[in-house]
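Lab notebook page, bench 4
Experiment: in silico fold of construct C2
Operator: M.H.
Input chain length: 202 residues
Purpose: comparison with the prior construct
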Amino acid sequence: MAPWLSWLKRLSSKQEICVTMRYQVNVCSASVSSGSVLRCMLLLVLATQLVVIATGEVALKRKPVIYHNQFAVHIPSGEEDASSIAAKHGFRNIGQKKKKKEKKNRKEKEKRMTKKEKKEMKEKKDEKEKEKEKEKREENERQEEEEEKEEKKRRKKKENKNREKKEKRMKGKEKEEEEEEEERKRRRKRRRRRTGRKRRRA
């Protein structure tokens, strides 16, 4: 039995373990005991709020909803980095081990290569780098275009709003002027009536 697995079993008798995915807590809650064996990476949130990673085969009471080979884990800012927390509790990081093995195999393969093969490999690598740079440039251009479009939309919206305000103001002024004109006409009519009466009396 792996040392970390026995540690998990000891822990499970005291408290529950949370199996979780990146940015999600309590996807499945389960205690370690006999049952279905699941090869995964666990994110354990302890009562002390310490976040621990475990990798390997874990026997769970019931299978979690997620069946990936490895869980991506999120370590909150301010905490130690994932690998150092794992190392503290005797865990081995499968991902790092795999990377080291791949790197070693690549180096051995490079040693066996001829000059021509090395040259071809270098050219392929350069092409990949160029492709990546091109994709990055295109992505940046796309983002800039989208930002410009958004900016145009915002400007247009603002202009429309200002125009509407101006039109409302103008309409208000026109209405006021019309009302004033009507008032003037009414006054003139009244004046005419009065002068007409005075003349008739005289």
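Observations: Residues 11-83, 89-94 have pLDDT under 50 and may be disordered. The chain has four helices and four strands.
Next step: discuss at group meeting.
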